[in-house]
């Protein structure tokens, strides 16, 4: 079946603009995660969805970052007033169950803030 | 707090050599899960293995094998007879067994396999 998809694959924006990144999880997967990967670094957790609620937003770096999810489907990560330090690859993952299940990752969105 | 340490940053081997990627973890939980992911140059993370804390049996899958030792908090990954296609960044990760199974990743090991 289809894997996790993300769009756009690349996004170049100017400092101060808002951006929206989209994630389509594997159909039927109840849990959805967002991670950020800065150049040459490991992945850092941003936010987790169980269904359409977000029990853990602890990884969001500032209040400029927000995310929502529609049912057990698509999720959108929004970054307002982008800064150069927001430049990174944003990865989405989904898992069938929300309890310690394997997470499958999408190809990521590479965000460059000029 | 959870932590994953991958002390090796870059490894270069010649094709057909065996190579071991080290992973050391820290957690206060008694139930947890360990993972390895591969990130080839294309960028997409590929799941390799998931192991729970109660299963210390070593696992072998083709040329890949994993050695889990709770006594040393290590979950090492060995590639036997490496191939050029094994060139990638390899991440070890840890999650709690709970409602939020967010992954804590190590910084990754860049493996280069030369022909």
Average residue pLDDT of chain A: 93
Q: Unreliable runs of chain A, pLDDT <50, ≥5 residues?
A: none
Radius of gyration of chain B: 14 Å
What profile does the largest beta sheet of chain B have?
A: 6 strands, mixed
Oligomeric state of the chains present here? heterodimer
Q: What is the alpha-carbon Rg of chain A in Å?
A: 13 Å
Description:
The complex is a heterodimer of chains A (114) and B (115). Chain A has 114 residues and is mainly β. Chain A has no helices and eleven strands. In chain A, strands 2, 4, 5, 6, 9, 10 and 11 form a seven-stranded mixed beta sheet that branches. In chain A, strands 1-3-8-7 form a four-stranded antiparallel beta sheet, with no helix packed on it. In chain A, a hairpin with a 5-residue loop joins strand 7 and strand 8. The N and C termini of chain A lie far apart (37 Å). The model of chain A has no long low-confidence stretch (mean pLDDT 93). Chain B is mainly β and 115 residues long. Chain B contains no helices and twelve strands. Chain B has strands spanning 3-5, 10-14, 19-21, 24-26, 32-39, 46-52, 59-61, 64-69, 74-79, 88-96, 104-105, 109-114. In chain B, the strands form three sheets. In chain B, strands 2, 5, 6, 10, 11 and 12 form a six-stranded mixed beta sheet that branches. Chain B has a four-stranded antiparallel beta sheet with strand order 3-9-8-7, with no helix packed on it. Chain B has a two-stranded antiparallel sheet with strand order 1-4. The radius of gyration of chain B is 14 Å and the shape is globular. The model of chain B has no long low-confidence stretch (mean pLDDT 94). The A-B interface holds A 31, 33, 35, 41-45, 48, 50, 55-56, 59, 89, 91, 93, 95, 98-108 and B 33, 35, 37, 42-45, 47, 50, 52, 91, 93, 95-108.
């Amino acid at each position: 079946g289809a894997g996790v998809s993300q769009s756009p694959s690349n996004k170049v924006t100017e400092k101060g603009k808002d951006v929206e990144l989209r994630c389509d999880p594997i159909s039927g997967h109840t849990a959805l995660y967002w991670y950020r990967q800065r150049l040459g670094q490991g992945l850092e957790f941003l936010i987790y969805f169980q269904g359409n609620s977000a029990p853990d937003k602890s990884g969001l770096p500032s209040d400029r970052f927000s995310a929502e999810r529609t049912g057990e489907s698509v999720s959108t990560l929004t970054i307002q007033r982008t800064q150069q330090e927001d430049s990174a690859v944003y990865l989405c993952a989904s898992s069938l169950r929300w309890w310690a299940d394997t997470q499958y990752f999408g190809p990521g969105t590479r965000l460059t803030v000029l | 707090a959870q932590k994953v340490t991958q002390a090796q940053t870059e490894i270069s081997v010649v094709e057909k050599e065996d190579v071991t990627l080290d992973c050391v973890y820290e957690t206060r939980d008694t139930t947890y899960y360990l993972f390895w992911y591969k990130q080839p140059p294309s960028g997409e993370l590929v799941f390799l293995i998931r192991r729970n804390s109660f299963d210390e049996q070593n696992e072998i899958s083709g040329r890949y094998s994993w050695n889990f030792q709770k006594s040393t908090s290590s979950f090492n990954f060995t590639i036997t007879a490496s191939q050029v296609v094994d060139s990638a960044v390899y991440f070890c990760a840890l999650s709690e067994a709970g409602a939020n199974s967010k992954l804590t990743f190590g910084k990754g090991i860049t493996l280069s396999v030369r022909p």
